[in-house]
Amino acid sequence: MFRKNIKPVVLAGALALATAVSPVFAAEDTKSIDVTKTAEFADGFNTVNGEFSFTVTPYSYYTYKNSDGSTDEEFYKKDTNGEKLDSVFPSHTITDIDINYDVNGTNQSKSGNGTLTFKKNTNTIPGVYIYTVQENTGTDANWTYDDTTYYVYVTVEDDGTVGITQIKAKKGNTSLPEKDKLTAINFTNQYTENATFEVGKTVTGKYGDKTKDFAFSIEFKKAAQALNTEIVGTVYNGDDATNTTYTFEYGQVQTVNLKDGQTIKFNTIPVGTTYYVTETVAGDDGYSSSYVQTSNNAQGKSTSASKD
Asked: How confident is the model at residue 293 (pLDDT cuts 50, 70, 90)?
Protein backbone atom coordinates (compact mmCIF):
# COMPACT_ATOMS: atom_id res chain seq x y z
CA MET A 1 0.00 0.00 0.00
CA PHE A 2 2.81 2.36 0.79
CA ARG A 3 4.34 1.97 -2.69
CA LYS A 4 1.05 2.67 -4.43
CA ASN A 5 0.57 5.93 -2.54
CA ILE A 6 4.01 7.34 -3.19
CA LYS A 7 4.14 6.85 -6.96
CA PRO A 8 1.75 9.71 -7.85
CA VAL A 9 3.75 12.10 -5.65
CA VAL A 10 7.01 11.24 -7.41
CA LEU A 11 5.36 11.56 -10.83
CA ALA A 12 3.87 14.98 -10.03
CA GLY A 13 7.25 16.23 -8.91
CA ALA A 14 8.85 15.01 -12.12
CA LEU A 15 6.24 16.76 -14.24
CA ALA A 16 6.65 20.04 -12.40
CA LEU A 17 10.40 19.88 -12.90
CA ALA A 18 10.07 19.14 -16.59
CA THR A 19 7.76 22.07 -17.31
CA ALA A 20 10.09 24.49 -15.53
CA VAL A 21 12.95 23.87 -17.97
CA SER A 22 13.03 26.25 -20.95
CA PRO A 23 13.36 24.60 -24.36
CA VAL A 24 16.72 24.82 -26.08
CA PHE A 25 16.73 25.37 -29.83
CA ALA A 26 19.69 24.20 -31.85
CA ALA A 27 21.30 26.69 -34.22
CA GLU A 28 20.77 25.69 -37.84
CA ASP A 29 21.89 27.11 -41.18
CA THR A 30 18.32 26.94 -42.49
CA LYS A 31 14.95 26.89 -40.78
CA SER A 32 11.34 27.13 -42.02
CA ILE A 33 7.88 28.23 -40.96
CA ASP A 34 4.71 26.79 -42.49
CA VAL A 35 2.56 28.94 -44.75
CA THR A 36 -0.99 27.64 -45.13
CA LYS A 37 -3.88 28.58 -47.37
CA THR A 38 -7.58 28.30 -46.56
CA ALA A 39 -10.03 28.55 -49.45
CA GLU A 40 -13.67 29.31 -48.72
CA PHE A 41 -16.40 28.71 -51.27
CA ALA A 42 -20.00 27.57 -51.36
CA ASP A 43 -21.10 24.00 -51.88
CA GLY A 44 -22.06 23.18 -55.44
CA PHE A 45 -18.77 23.72 -57.27
CA ASN A 46 -17.25 20.76 -59.10
CA THR A 47 -13.82 22.33 -59.48
CA VAL A 48 -12.11 25.38 -58.00
CA ASN A 49 -8.59 26.41 -58.97
CA GLY A 50 -6.38 29.23 -57.78
CA GLU A 51 -2.73 30.24 -57.78
CA PHE A 52 -1.30 32.32 -54.94
CA SER A 53 2.11 33.94 -54.47
CA PHE A 54 3.66 35.99 -51.69
CA THR A 55 6.18 38.76 -51.08
CA VAL A 56 8.70 38.64 -48.22
CA THR A 57 10.47 41.90 -47.30
CA PRO A 58 13.20 42.59 -44.67
CA TYR A 59 11.65 45.05 -42.23
CA SER A 60 13.91 45.62 -39.21
CA TYR A 61 16.15 43.86 -36.68
CA TYR A 62 17.66 44.18 -33.25
CA THR A 63 20.82 42.70 -31.80
CA TYR A 64 20.57 43.51 -28.09
CA LYS A 65 18.21 44.02 -25.17
CA ASN A 66 17.95 46.98 -22.84
CA SER A 67 18.46 46.62 -19.10
CA ASP A 68 14.68 46.42 -18.60
CA GLY A 69 14.42 43.53 -21.04
CA SER A 70 12.89 45.56 -23.87
CA THR A 71 14.34 45.69 -27.36
CA ASP A 72 15.20 48.50 -29.74
CA GLU A 73 14.49 47.82 -33.40
CA GLU A 74 16.69 49.38 -36.04
CA PHE A 75 15.17 49.95 -39.44
CA TYR A 76 17.91 48.13 -41.32
CA LYS A 77 21.56 48.60 -40.54
CA LYS A 78 23.31 51.22 -42.64
CA ASP A 79 26.84 51.15 -43.97
CA THR A 80 29.25 54.11 -43.95
CA ASN A 81 27.53 55.60 -46.99
CA GLY A 82 24.13 55.55 -45.30
CA GLU A 83 22.81 52.81 -47.56
CA LYS A 84 20.63 50.01 -46.24
CA LEU A 85 22.76 46.98 -45.48
CA ASP A 86 20.55 44.03 -46.38
CA SER A 87 23.38 41.52 -46.36
CA VAL A 88 23.08 40.87 -42.61
CA PHE A 89 19.58 39.47 -43.08
CA PRO A 90 19.25 35.72 -43.64
CA SER A 91 18.16 35.00 -47.20
CA HIS A 92 14.64 33.71 -47.75
CA THR A 93 12.54 31.67 -50.17
CA ILE A 94 8.76 31.14 -50.10
CA THR A 95 6.77 28.63 -52.13
CA ASP A 96 3.66 29.47 -54.12
CA ILE A 97 0.46 27.70 -53.10
CA ASP A 98 -2.11 26.28 -55.53
CA ILE A 99 -5.71 25.31 -54.82
CA ASN A 100 -6.92 22.52 -57.12
CA TYR A 101 -10.25 21.36 -55.72
CA ASP A 102 -12.12 18.60 -57.58
CA VAL A 103 -15.27 17.26 -55.97
CA ASN A 104 -15.08 14.09 -58.11
CA GLY A 105 -11.31 13.65 -57.98
CA THR A 106 -8.64 12.75 -55.47
CA ASN A 107 -8.13 16.31 -54.25
CA GLN A 108 -11.18 17.44 -52.29
CA SER A 109 -9.24 19.69 -49.92
CA LYS A 110 -10.07 23.37 -49.55
CA SER A 111 -6.60 24.14 -48.22
CA GLY A 112 -3.01 24.31 -49.39
CA ASN A 113 0.43 24.28 -47.82
CA GLY A 114 3.77 25.94 -48.45
CA THR A 115 6.89 26.94 -46.57
CA LEU A 116 8.89 30.08 -45.88
CA THR A 117 12.54 29.14 -45.47
CA PHE A 118 15.35 31.30 -44.11
CA LYS A 119 19.07 30.65 -44.57
CA LYS A 120 21.89 32.43 -42.79
CA ASN A 121 24.61 33.99 -44.91
CA THR A 122 28.22 34.89 -44.22
CA ASN A 123 27.32 38.37 -42.94
CA THR A 124 24.52 37.28 -40.61
CA ILE A 125 25.20 38.17 -36.97
CA PRO A 126 23.29 37.10 -33.85
CA GLY A 127 20.04 38.99 -33.35
CA VAL A 128 16.36 38.94 -34.26
CA TYR A 129 15.50 39.69 -37.86
CA ILE A 130 11.98 40.83 -38.75
CA TYR A 131 10.33 40.35 -42.14
CA THR A 132 6.91 41.23 -43.51
CA VAL A 133 4.99 38.60 -45.48
CA GLN A 134 2.07 39.57 -47.71
CA GLU A 135 -0.03 37.81 -50.31
CA ASN A 136 0.22 39.23 -53.80
CA THR A 137 -3.04 40.45 -55.34
CA GLY A 138 -3.88 38.24 -58.28
CA THR A 139 -5.92 38.88 -61.39
CA ASP A 140 -8.70 36.29 -60.99
CA ALA A 141 -11.84 38.33 -60.27
CA ASN A 142 -13.57 35.33 -58.72
CA TRP A 143 -11.08 35.25 -55.82
CA THR A 144 -10.65 37.68 -52.97
CA TYR A 145 -7.03 38.12 -51.90
CA ASP A 146 -6.01 38.29 -48.26
CA ASP A 147 -4.56 41.70 -47.31
CA THR A 148 -3.12 40.52 -43.98
CA THR A 149 0.48 41.50 -43.18
CA TYR A 150 2.42 39.05 -41.04
CA TYR A 151 5.59 39.99 -39.18
CA VAL A 152 8.00 37.07 -39.00
CA TYR A 153 10.73 37.02 -36.34
CA VAL A 154 13.86 35.04 -37.16
CA THR A 155 16.17 34.52 -34.18
CA VAL A 156 19.88 34.01 -34.86
CA GLU A 157 22.14 32.94 -31.98
CA ASP A 158 25.73 31.90 -31.43
CA ASP A 159 26.03 28.68 -29.44
CA GLY A 160 29.49 28.03 -30.77
CA THR A 161 28.18 28.26 -34.30
CA VAL A 162 26.07 31.13 -35.60
CA GLY A 163 22.71 29.82 -36.80
CA ILE A 164 18.96 30.23 -36.83
CA THR A 165 17.33 28.93 -33.65
CA GLN A 166 13.68 30.00 -33.90
CA ILE A 167 11.06 31.44 -36.24
CA LYS A 168 7.78 32.91 -35.01
CA ALA A 169 5.20 35.28 -36.44
CA LYS A 170 2.40 37.63 -35.53
CA LYS A 171 -0.51 39.06 -37.49
CA GLY A 172 -0.17 42.81 -37.85
CA ASN A 173 2.38 45.13 -36.26
CA THR A 174 1.06 45.00 -32.71
CA SER A 175 2.69 44.19 -29.39
CA LEU A 176 2.45 40.50 -28.60
CA PRO A 177 4.07 38.39 -25.87
CA GLU A 178 6.54 35.82 -27.12
CA LYS A 179 4.34 32.96 -25.97
CA ASP A 180 1.46 34.22 -28.14
CA LYS A 181 3.41 34.45 -31.37
CA LEU A 182 2.52 32.02 -34.14
CA THR A 183 4.43 29.00 -35.39
CA ALA A 184 2.65 29.12 -38.76
CA ILE A 185 0.97 31.78 -40.89
CA ASN A 186 -2.30 31.41 -42.77
CA PHE A 187 -3.95 33.33 -45.57
CA THR A 188 -7.67 32.96 -46.30
CA ASN A 189 -9.35 33.52 -49.66
CA GLN A 190 -12.95 33.41 -50.80
CA TYR A 191 -14.04 32.13 -54.20
CA THR A 192 -17.33 33.23 -55.72
CA GLU A 193 -18.81 32.71 -59.14
CA ASN A 194 -22.02 34.05 -60.61
CA ALA A 195 -24.84 31.98 -62.03
CA THR A 196 -27.85 33.01 -64.12
CA PHE A 197 -31.51 32.44 -63.36
CA GLU A 198 -34.75 33.45 -65.05
CA VAL A 199 -38.50 33.11 -64.66
CA GLY A 200 -40.72 33.54 -67.72
CA LYS A 201 -44.47 33.63 -68.38
CA THR A 202 -46.42 32.17 -71.29
CA VAL A 203 -50.20 32.51 -71.67
CA THR A 204 -51.99 29.91 -73.78
CA GLY A 205 -55.60 29.16 -74.53
CA LYS A 206 -58.23 30.56 -76.84
CA TYR A 207 -59.40 33.21 -74.39
CA GLY A 208 -56.10 33.93 -72.68
CA ASP A 209 -55.44 37.60 -71.95
CA LYS A 210 -51.87 38.25 -73.01
CA THR A 211 -51.90 41.71 -71.46
CA LYS A 212 -52.71 40.42 -67.98
CA ASP A 213 -50.15 40.68 -65.15
CA PHE A 214 -49.34 37.45 -63.34
CA ALA A 215 -47.79 37.71 -59.88
CA PHE A 216 -44.70 35.75 -58.81
CA SER A 217 -43.28 35.76 -55.31
CA ILE A 218 -39.48 35.38 -55.36
CA GLU A 219 -37.04 35.10 -52.47
CA PHE A 220 -33.28 34.54 -52.34
CA LYS A 221 -31.24 32.98 -49.52
CA LYS A 222 -27.62 34.11 -49.40
CA ALA A 223 -24.80 31.72 -50.25
CA ALA A 224 -22.20 31.28 -47.52
CA GLN A 225 -19.39 33.07 -49.37
CA ALA A 226 -21.47 35.61 -51.31
CA LEU A 227 -20.00 39.10 -51.12
CA ASN A 228 -22.97 41.04 -52.51
CA THR A 229 -25.85 42.26 -50.37
CA GLU A 230 -28.59 42.28 -53.01
CA ILE A 231 -29.61 40.79 -56.35
CA VAL A 232 -31.02 42.77 -59.27
CA GLY A 233 -33.33 41.32 -61.93
CA THR A 234 -34.34 42.89 -65.24
CA VAL A 235 -37.62 42.28 -67.05
CA TYR A 236 -37.37 41.31 -70.75
CA ASN A 237 -39.95 41.39 -73.53
CA GLY A 238 -38.74 38.43 -75.51
CA ASP A 239 -35.02 39.12 -76.06
CA ASP A 240 -35.26 42.85 -75.41
CA ALA A 241 -34.49 44.31 -71.98
CA THR A 242 -36.98 46.80 -70.56
CA ASN A 243 -36.43 49.60 -68.06
CA THR A 244 -38.19 47.59 -65.36
CA THR A 245 -35.88 46.21 -62.69
CA TYR A 246 -36.40 44.62 -59.29
CA THR A 247 -33.89 44.72 -56.44
CA PHE A 248 -33.98 41.84 -53.97
CA GLU A 249 -32.47 41.81 -50.51
CA TYR A 250 -31.59 38.40 -49.18
CA GLY A 251 -34.35 36.82 -47.10
CA GLN A 252 -37.01 39.26 -48.31
CA VAL A 253 -39.94 38.09 -50.45
CA GLN A 254 -40.84 40.37 -53.33
CA THR A 255 -43.64 40.20 -55.89
CA VAL A 256 -42.83 40.40 -59.60
CA ASN A 257 -45.51 40.93 -62.27
CA LEU A 258 -45.03 39.31 -65.67
CA LYS A 259 -47.17 39.31 -68.79
CA ASP A 260 -47.20 36.78 -71.58
CA GLY A 261 -43.80 36.60 -73.27
CA GLN A 262 -42.02 38.39 -70.45
CA THR A 263 -39.09 37.06 -68.45
CA ILE A 264 -37.22 38.37 -65.44
CA LYS A 265 -33.52 37.57 -65.72
CA PHE A 266 -30.89 37.52 -62.97
CA ASN A 267 -27.34 37.43 -64.34
CA THR A 268 -25.23 37.86 -61.20
CA ILE A 269 -26.39 35.30 -58.64
CA PRO A 270 -23.52 33.86 -56.59
CA VAL A 271 -23.29 30.09 -56.94
CA GLY A 272 -24.74 28.47 -53.84
CA THR A 273 -27.68 30.88 -53.65
CA THR A 274 -31.03 29.29 -52.86
CA TYR A 275 -34.12 30.77 -54.49
CA TYR A 276 -37.83 30.25 -53.92
CA VAL A 277 -40.43 31.03 -56.61
CA THR A 278 -44.21 30.87 -56.21
CA GLU A 279 -46.79 31.92 -58.79
CA THR A 280 -50.06 33.03 -57.29
CA VAL A 281 -53.26 32.65 -59.29
CA ALA A 282 -55.94 34.86 -57.76
CA GLY A 283 -59.68 34.22 -57.80
CA ASP A 284 -61.81 32.17 -60.13
CA ASP A 285 -60.50 33.68 -63.32
CA GLY A 286 -60.07 30.50 -65.31
CA TYR A 287 -56.28 30.52 -65.37
CA SER A 288 -54.05 27.69 -64.21
CA SER A 289 -50.38 28.14 -63.33
CA SER A 290 -47.68 27.38 -65.86
CA TYR A 291 -44.33 29.15 -66.08
CA VAL A 292 -40.77 28.67 -67.27
CA GLN A 293 -37.98 28.61 -64.69
CA THR A 294 -34.38 27.99 -65.67
CA SER A 295 -31.12 28.37 -63.80
CA ASN A 296 -27.42 27.64 -64.07
CA ASN A 297 -25.55 26.40 -61.00
CA ALA A 298 -28.06 27.92 -58.57
CA GLN A 299 -29.80 25.67 -56.10
CA GLY A 300 -33.54 26.29 -56.10
CA LYS A 301 -37.01 25.35 -55.00
CA SER A 302 -40.17 26.31 -56.85
CA THR A 303 -43.84 25.98 -56.00
CA SER A 304 -46.51 26.25 -58.64
CA ALA A 305 -49.72 27.65 -57.24
CA SER A 306 -53.06 26.51 -58.60
CA LYS A 307 -56.61 27.68 -58.33
CA ASP A 308 -58.48 26.36 -55.25
From this structure: very low
